[in-house]
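Review form for a predicted model. The reviewer records the input and the model, then writes brief findings.
Reviewer: anonymous (R2)
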Amino acid sequence: MREFTILIGEIFFIALIQTVLELLLDPDKRPQQVKILNIACILGSLYLLLQFVFTYIIGEMATFVKLSF
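Model under review:
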C-alpha cells in the first residue's frame, strides 16, 4: 500500500508540474511546445505506472499462481 501511495504522489507531482508549465508557456502562442509538454508528462506517468505494475503487481500475481497449482 505504501508503494501505491508513493506512485499516486509521483503522478500528482507530474500533473502539478505540467499545469504550472502550461501556464508559463501560453498555449495560444506556442501550441507545439504545449503538445510536447503534454506528451512528455503522459509518457512519464505511463513509465511510472508500468514500473509499478512490473515490480509489484506481477510479482504478487506470480506468487498467487504458484500457490494455486
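Findings: Residues 31-68 form the longest helix (38 residues).
Further findings: Residues 2-68 form one domain.
Recommendation: see findings above.
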